[in-house]
Amino acid sequence: METSVVKIDNVSFKYEGQEEYALRNVSLQIKDGEWLAIVGHNGSGKSTLAKLLNGLQYPNEGRIEIGGIYLTEETVWDTRRLIGMVFQNPDNQFVGTTVKDDVAFGLENNGVPREVMVERVRTSLQKVKMEQFLDQEPHHLSGGQKQRVAIASVIALRPKIIVLDEATSMLDPRGREEVLRTIRELKDDNDMTVISITHDLEEAAKADRIIVMNRGELYREGVPEEIFQMDEELVKLGLDIPFPVKMSKMLKEKGIPINKHYLTEEELVEQLWTSHSSK
Ligand SMILES: Nc1ncnc2c1ncn2[C@@H]1O[C@H](COP(=O)(O)OP(=O)(O)OP(=O)(O)O)[C@@H](O)[C@H]1O
Ligand SMILES: [Mg+2]
Q1: pLDDT reading at 245 higher than 60
Q2: Percent of the chain having pLDDT more than 70?
């Protein structure tokens, strides 16, 4: 089961005309069906890594494999079929004049038959709760609505891997929760791999694994429990410790019996509830 769907092998990359490398000796394997969160302060190289995965840029050194295909200028169209990208700014992602056309565009390009296409457009928009906007013009939508449509366009293609680069940052907490739940369902139903670049460490806490980037390097990788044990070190890297982790720590310091740092509010509440009612 444990096959790697993405292999990044010793990749370094420098933007043209720049002195500094944006990525340095990054090696990373992403397992099939995994939810991987990538965190790191501004400019640490997260988006650059996403661009390399999509073949928008190519490594100066090292190599990338997507679904067993060595990513080069010759194979980029094959690898792009496997990987769907949703970026931070939805305005740069629209191609259609209506929401419907926009979601249909990628399907049309992939030669999906018309009946299938109509159905896929509808179900994808339904999944992000935008089906009532089918005939609207994308530029009339709010930022959050645009981002939902961008996500629908990608999930309509049923990619094997989806990369979300701060893709839910325009949504309010409830909208964000909803979209992430949808992606989680899609992941489970279609055996999709999710790579989520996020500033939201509470979201990252729900991932299978977290990568911490720092100054173009892969600084640390581990399951959420391991990463949040870094504690103040995360703050030094410019990251915010999630509220439930902070709260667990504070309670423990006050002598309230907490046996670990809880990663989600639900877990923390559950622990407090059980220890309180057992007295
Ligand atoms: N098009 C570009 N041309 C030149 N330098 C760039 C370009 N895009 C990014 N950089 C530089 O590359 C480094 C990594 O940037 P990148 O956008 O990958 O960071 P990031 O981790 O995604 O940051 P953020 O959290 O702000 O999105 C930064 O030093 C940045 O200034
Ligand atoms: Mg970025």
Answers
A1: yes
A2: 96
Q: Is the CB of 55 under 6 A from ligand 1?
A: no
Using pLDDT thresholds of 50, 70 and 90, give the confidence band for residue 277.
low
Residue nearest to ligand 1 atom 7, measured at CA = 15
Quick one: CA torsion of 86, 90, 91, 96, rounded to 10 degrees? Answer: 70
> In whole angstroms, what is the distance from residue 130 CA to residue 99 CA?
9
How many other CB atoms are found less than 10 A from the CB of residue 27?
Answer: 11
Sign (positive or negative) of CA dihedral 183, 6, 165, 196: positive
26 lines ligand 1 (CB under 6 A): no
3-state secondary structure of 21: coil
Q: State if residue 182 touches ligand 1 by the CB under 6 angstroms criterion.
A: no
Range picked from 89-103, 192-206, 239-253 for highest mean pLDDT: 192-206
The pTM for the full model equals 0.89
Would the CA dihedral through 160, 52, 6, 241 be positive or negative?
Answer: negative
Going from the Cα of 176 to the center of ligand 1, the distance in angstroms, rounded, reads 24
82: its two tokens: 């496997």
